[in-house]
Amino acid sequence: MTITVQDLWDEGAERLSLSIIAGEQYLARKIPEIAMNRPGLALTGFFQYFANQRIQVFGLAEFTYLKSLSNKEKSRRLEELFNQQIPGIVITRNRKASSEILELSERFKVPVMRTPLVTMNFVNECTVLLEKLAAPRERIQGTMMEVMGIGVLLRGNPGIGKSETALSLIERGYSLVSDDITEIRRTSRGRILCWANEVTRFHMEIRGIGIIHVPSLFGVASIRRQTELDVVIDLEKPSGDEDRTGVHPESIELMGVKLPCIRLPVRSGRDMANIVEVAALNQKLKELGHDAAKELDDKIISRLTKGRVQHG
Amino acid sequence: MAEQTIVKKLKVLNAYGIHARPAALLVRAAGKYECEIFIEKDGNKVSGKSIMGLMTIEGYPGSTMQVSASGIDAREAMAEIEELFANKFYED
């Protein structure tokens, strides 16, 4: 995924307290390498190894060094730096950009931004932001809930009762992340993060009623902005081949991440919310190291084989 | 009749684009049929049977949607959906 300085600006202007001081019309420049670089070494004239494809961060070190140079030398070094096709510059600690920088920004069409943050804080914040921007994302069909800290994605054909199940879960005190349409991205820790589309966020469609706004009806505790996905639950028409023991759990892959997947048959009169709640709890228990199905199976096998040994 | 997939590009012609009412009409039409219906725009693909999906697809007036229907009654479903688009969702 290609990221431009514009993306960084759109997403980070507020969070990183950025302001544009030159080259606003060049924000479309791409950031080929999603990272930052302190150009101190390059300013000394060393360009054999220079991460020119990254955002260049001018901090106290860079400014102090530039100050130590004669005006002529300073211009020459800066020009050389701008000549390396850098995507953009961020000046920290709200330092004033010298007239050379402003002039070079125009000449080489490089946007220059400024932030009051100190360099370390800026680099930390900006790293998180860039990673978020660069992460692959998808939009999937499914209703996302958080049940006792477990991220549950409810999937199933239209009309099977995803929203109705979610509504019952909300009534039980659990939280809605998104109804029917869920945005996902993979985090650097190999988890799937889920949130709702901006436009329809926290709305639900309930057949026969129409569109409702969940926090207005159930309070702010009934919603969550985002949550990590732990288990996928597919609501299905009863087929007869459902899992009856849970000894061999199924799994699916989303964006290359393997996730446990439970297929629940929906029959009229069956309290799906209750079953989803149990499935989530059971998942939590498994994550804590207790797999009830497997433990019982092991116990039975050990009894059976012990028996065989005794009798045989 | 055999399984089939029909794909068509349809243009949003009404003044307000795909807001709640057109979305509801589409979902109601799509919901009548067995076949799977997807509506796609700018790489976003949502089920034609999902109100929430259609409201997130950003169906601006004048934009073009790729509609696909696959299944036993795809032809009939597509005809009905096409009619909705062509008649500006009975608005204006």
Description:
Chain A has helices at residues 5-12, 40-43, 60-67, 71-82, 99-107, 119-134, 162-171, 214-218, 272-287, 292-311, and strands at 19-22, 36-37, 55-58, 89-91, 112-114, 137-141, 143-147, 150-156, 175-178, 181-186, 192-196, 203-206, 210-213, 226-228, 231-236, 250-254, 257-265. Chain A is α/β, with parallel strands linked by helices and 312 residues long. In chain A, the strands form 4 sheets. A 6-stranded mixed beta sheet of chain A has the order 9-7-8-15-17-16. A 5-stranded mixed beta sheet of chain A has the order 1-5-4-3-2. The longest helix of chain A has 20 residues, at 292-311. Chain B is α+β, with helices and mostly antiparallel strands. Chain B has a 4-stranded antiparallel beta sheet, covered by helices on one side. Chain B has a single domain (4-90), classed as Histidine-containing Protein, Chain: A, CATH 3.30.1340.10. In chain B, helix 1 packs antiparallel against helix 3. Chain A binds chain B through residues 139, 141, 158-159, 179-181, 197, 199-200, 203-205, 211, and chain B through 20, 31, 44-47, 49-53, 55-56, 58.
Fold blueprint:
The complex is a heterodimer of chains A (312) and B (92).
Chain A: H1 5-12, E1 19-22, E2 36-37, H2 40-43, E3 55-58, H3 60-67, H4 71-82, E4 89-91, H5 99-107, E5 112-114, H6 119-134, E6 137-141, E7 143-147, E8 150-156, H7 162-171, E9 175-178, E10 181-186, E11 192-196, E12 203-206, E13 210-213, H8 214-218, E14 226-228, E15 231-236, E16 250-254, E17 257-265, H9 272-287, H10 292-311
Parallel strand pairs in A: 2-3, 3-4, 4-5, 8-15, 15-17
Antiparallel strand pairs in A: 1-5, 6-10, 7-8, 7-9, 10-11, 11-14, 12-13, 16-17
Helix pairs in contact in A: 1-6, 4-5, 7-9
Chain B: E1 4-11, H1 20-31, E2 36-41, E3 44-47, H2 51-55, E4 64-71, H3 74-86
Antiparallel strand pairs in B: 1-4, 2-3, 2-4
Helix pairs in contact in B: 1-3
